[in-house]
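Ticket #4471: complex job returned nothing on first submit. Input attached below:
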Amino acid sequence: MTRIKEKFAELDAKKEKALIAYIMVGYPNENATFSAVKGLIKGGADIIELGFPFSDPLADGPIIQNASTVSLEAGTKINRFFNIVKKIRKETDIPLVLMTYTNIIYHMGYPKFISKSKNAGIDGIILPDMSVEESKEYIASAKNKIDTIFLISPNTTKSRIEKISKSSSGFLYLVAVYGTTGIKTKIHSYTLKAIRDVKKITKGKIPVGVGFGISTSDDVQKYIKAGADAVIVGSAFLKIIENTSQNKIESRIESFTKNLKSQTKSKLTRSYLK
Amino acid sequence: MKYPKDGRFGEYGGKYIPETLVPAIEELEENYIKFKDNKEFKKELDYYLKQYAGRPTPLYYAKNLSEKCGGAKIYLKREDLLHGGAHKINNTLGQALLAKKMHKKRIIAETGAGQHGVATSMACAVLGMKSEVYMGYKDTIRQKLNVSRMNMLGSKVHPVMSGSKTLKDAINEAIRDWITNVDTTYYLLGSAVGPHPYPVMVRDFQSVIGKEIKVQMKKISNKTPDIIIACVGGGSNAIGTFYPLIDTNAEIIGVEAAGKGLKSKFHSATLSAGSKGVLHGMMTYLLQNKEGQITETHSISAGLDYPGVGPEHAYLKDSKRVKYHSATDAEVIDAFLTLTRTEGIIPALESAHDIAEAIKVAKKSKKSESIVVTLSGRGDKDVEEVQNYLNTHDKN
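Support reply: We reran it on our side without changes. The output follows.
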């Protein structure tokens, strides 16, 4: 069983949902990344997504675009990234997912990139510009090594959702909004409907995580209530890192994570914790 | 015309897109297939191309330039005489008409030199649609005349501040807009790049150039051209020139921007110096570093300043049907001045790349041979840039 699968099984047994946290590696430097990861783990994040920067992040809004630029300028390179992952992996068993763009892994070659990732301790990969039609070689290379987490959108048809879930492992990433990543203030009824529809189609065969634009514990609660198995928060963490001095990153990330995580626990657990 | 159902030219092309865009791309492909051979649609487009844009464009025998070079007869396909001053209008009229048939009310576009933005603004104005254009901040400065033209034509111009602030970043931003407004918006891409079906659709709309050349050359000399030359950034005027003549015996040459030289880091010669990769929805040749990060490009012409290239060109390079050469900024300035002074034609800096190549080739060719050069645009937009170059390089 993969780490991601185990994590969802473990949460299931506790009647909890998953909080998935995204940070950009090397933003604004490596120390910040290590501190943030510590804070995320202490705060109770269930899965950590590590962003690797790409020069042309076309699915990302201004916050992650800026983080990508800063990280690249700070000298983030693939081999350094794998070393960072190895260091994190030594300390923790938390599932680690890499999020980047297709060209980064195509350029190294799918099989080589995937075995290097696996070797470093990465459990899954998310590529927002990889469509399922173009993914044959990628999936073949990843099989039994690393989870391939594909994205679906509120406008994805039923037959495509079925097709994409078959190519996905770990979890299915439902994009909450029409738009790029970033902090949004509104929860759309179309998203809540999409969560319910996708859950009906996937019939519990694969967990469904919702991401893009989610930034508050209130958001988390509403998406969980609509049936999401996991909620993914990214830009809000980057915003904290941007506005916090290095020595306070860990504690601030920890308390924000706790706040979000509390909403993924069942009412019973929550009242018990009080 | 041949339509690759899987969207691939050999191993190049495809659709590497965020899932949110899949329904929009499917809708576009469905409609393009439905309308491309539709009699009414073709008639309407033909009307606008003739009566509004000014087709057919002349195939002009550049006698002075030919004699100066002392070799083959050089013919210029005068796309610079089209409404708006460039070949871009062939594609924008086609796509804007298609968008109208699809009942799309809002049009977005990217632009490099501003010619595609202007051509989009014109097509949208005449067809009664609203358009917004993304343009790299750097390009809004060096092509500010075109920014004013777009504004006056009623388009909203968004300067793009991210990345290298040029064409590739304008495309990123247009795609982000499209993801956000996918239901209401038609993305009118200006070059033969992007996810399928754009490369094939833009090629088809631009193929009017090559088709006319075929007919005109036959009339002039009763044969097909011996040598065909066009400049390649994304590659829309080039693929429109080459595609209808691909089955002839002509030697075909695409010319890329060598900037300050292929050995320097300052060029945009994707096919000459790039490697395979995935960007803007397609697999193609890219200028990238060892890590797969896209590198910044340089060209004196904003329209060629792009680190990717249309996937069909990537295929034509590998299959060796087309040769891809390049011209440096210095060669381009020379060619710009030569054409201006021998023929009284001010070419766009983009098109001056193929003039530079034509001059080289003509000198080595026989007098009995013919060279057709697609003069993709006029150079009014570039005179300030050229003047600055001359001032700083002490030439005149």
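Residues 349-364 of chain B form the longest helix (16 residues). Closing as resolved unless it happens again.
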